[in-house]
Amino acid sequence: MSRVSVLSALALTALLLATPMLAADDAATLYKGSGRLSFEPQVTAAGATVTVTGPGGFYSQEEFASAANAAFEISTNMADGAYTYRLVLHPRVGAATRRAMDQARATGDDFTAEVLAAELAIDPISGSFTVRNGAIVNEALVESAAAISQTDSGFEATSDAATFNNVNAAAQVFATDVIVQGSECVGFDCVASESFGFDTLRLKENNLRIHFDDTSSSASFPSNDWRIVANDSSNGGANYLAFEDATAGRTPFKVEAGAIANALYVDSDGDVGVGTANPVVEVHSVDGNTPTLRLEQDGSNGFTPQTWDIAGNETNFFVRDVTNGSKLPFRIEPGAPDNSLYIDSTGNIGLGVTNPGNELVISANDRPAIQLIDTTETEKWEIKRSGSGLAFVNDTNGTNLVLFDSGIVRMGSSSTSGSEVFLLQANGDLAIAGALSQGSDRNSKQNIVPVTREEILEKVMQLPIARWEYKLRPDVEHVGPMAQDFHALFGLGPSDRRISTLDTSGVALAAVQALHQKLEEKQLEIDTLSQRLEALEARLAQ
Fold first, then answer.
1. Contact yes or no for 50/36 (Cβ under 8 A)
2. CB-based contacts of 392, cutoff 8 Å, min separation 6
3. Disulfide engineering: 230 pairs with which of 108, 208, 459, 507, CB 3.0-4.6 Å?
4. What is the DSSP letter of 426?
5. pLDDT averaged over the chain?
6. Structure confidence at residue 50 as a pLDDT band (50, 70, 90)
7. Domain segments of the chain: what residues?
8. Contact indicator for 291, 318 with CB cutoff of 8 Å
9. CA 176, CA 21: separation in Å to the nearest integer?
10. Of 73, 74, 72, 67, nearest in space to 40 by CA
């Protein structure tokens, strides 16, 4: 199936199962009280998230299992000032769509995931409110403008209160180009003695908007309307400068009043500075305390909400899992050496090395080591270089050492020669300080079935015996059967899960017992024949 046909099928499935995309104004209705914001969803939603930010670094985010309960309560610790709210409605996701989305995520198929999520998305709702003396200011109050009346010479201000609706017709209409060789003031509050300073164009009144109304009527020409907005017109609204997509009813760009100098700065090279006028890379963020980038998946497209922070300060660079208790699963301290962690194109990992030849390679100037810490048992172990070999050490008390060095394996409380409890020499000699026990306890076994000794003895008798030497020890001669012959006769080996290759000693013991039984039987037969012989000799003597 082509990519286009896959897209069409997935899009159709999503359309059948998902909630249609809705603009912010259609998704919910906002109600403002003196001490509470509440939202009435106009679409079916599985839940909601309400986020509020404000003066002094105020931040609040609350999840609601039911979108109908989405709200924000004013608290006593909120300072006076302008606040911004954001409502995210989580769309309901059908079971089939959820499975498809999860599968797309699991397989890294971002294209399919985006197609499915696009049909579920509900635009977040954002806005502002102002707190004064512990309460939300009354938004119903309307600010008045100076009244306007028409005279022979044009418009003039009067003392009566009036609004925009007082002006219904233009004083002058120009059907040609207009050139103003000076500055211009537009608005109800402009005066004859206006002092422009360096301003060429000034808008002056209590509601300031510039509307770009594109009247293109052909479908082949762009016709979207735009608006530049300065401040909310409602009481308690926010102070800002924004670019509004008037056709869609969205505000993609907004700058709040009081933003720091150079909050967003683009230099001549196209580098973007956040908090700096001197960006030196494509995106350069500056802050006096832990500059941070937040990545927030808000749930508006049907995926589970998840928030990550990427940040750095004088103690470390880190990734923070905000959603799960602000844990820090990844950290790098300043001054870490080159290639502290290196992953090559094959997935091999190097610690201190740029070309790891295996899945994990550790390179260090002084005795590289791996430390294993069990916090529940307060135990600490190390795997490290020791001399020319490798050591395993219980570093909690410095005992229980295993040392591999020059073909020798030592086990004991230290690496000192003569103190070990286990010593395997390079030539294969093995010495232990204690007793050697095998795992022959009946309680460790199952499916115990008696074996016929005669059968074992018969097969042992068929084993070919040879004289041979190990390739690694040609100076030592051995006599015995070959392992392949042993396995062929008895059916022992890795392919037979019931019998281990380590049970050859058990077969030998069974053979000894069978021989002993045969000897006892023969001895009994001899004793019986001897008795009969003695009886016959006695009779002959009589």
1. no
2. 381, 382, 383, 401, 402, 403
3. 208
4. T
5. 82
6. very high
7. 3-136, 187-330, 337-364, 367-432, 450-538
8. no
9. 44
10. 67
DSSP letter string, 186-251: ESTT--TT---TT-SEEE-SSSEEEEE-----STTS----EEEEES-SSTT---EEEEEETTTTEE
Tokens of 64: 């609601």
* Long-range interactions of 414-423: CB distance < 8 A, separation 24+: 415/386, 415/391
Position with higher pLDDT, 164 vs 257: 257
At 96, which helix (H) or strand (E)?
Answer: helix 95-106
> In this structure, what token pair is assigned to residue 465?
């015996």
Given a cut of 60, whether residue 215 has pLDDT beyond it is yes
Which CATH number fits the domain 3-136, given the four candidates 3.20.20.10, 2.60.40.10, 3.30.70.660, 2.160.20.60?
Answer: 2.60.40.10
Phi, psi of 253 (to 5 degrees): -140, 130
CA–CA dist 374, 392 (Å, integer): 15
348-374 per-position pLDDT tens digit? 999 999 999 999 998 887 778 888 888
Three-state DSSP state, 409: strand
The CA distance from 22 to 43, in Å, is: 9
Residue 232 phi/psi, 5-degree rounding, is -70, 155
Return the pLDDT at 429: 86
Positive/negative CA dihedral, 400, 405, 410, 416: negative
DSSP element (H, E) containing 533: helix 504-541
Say which residue the tokens 């009346």 belong to: 149
- By three-state DSSP, how is residue 480 classified? strand
* Separation of alpha carbons 466 and 460, rounded Å: 14
Tokens (6 digits) for 389: 């070999």
- Candidate from 126-130, 285-289, 404-408 with smallest mean pLDDT: 404-408
Convert the pLDDT of each residue in 428-487 to its tens digit: 888 888 777 666 667 777 787 777 777 777 777 887 888 888 887 788 888 877 777 777
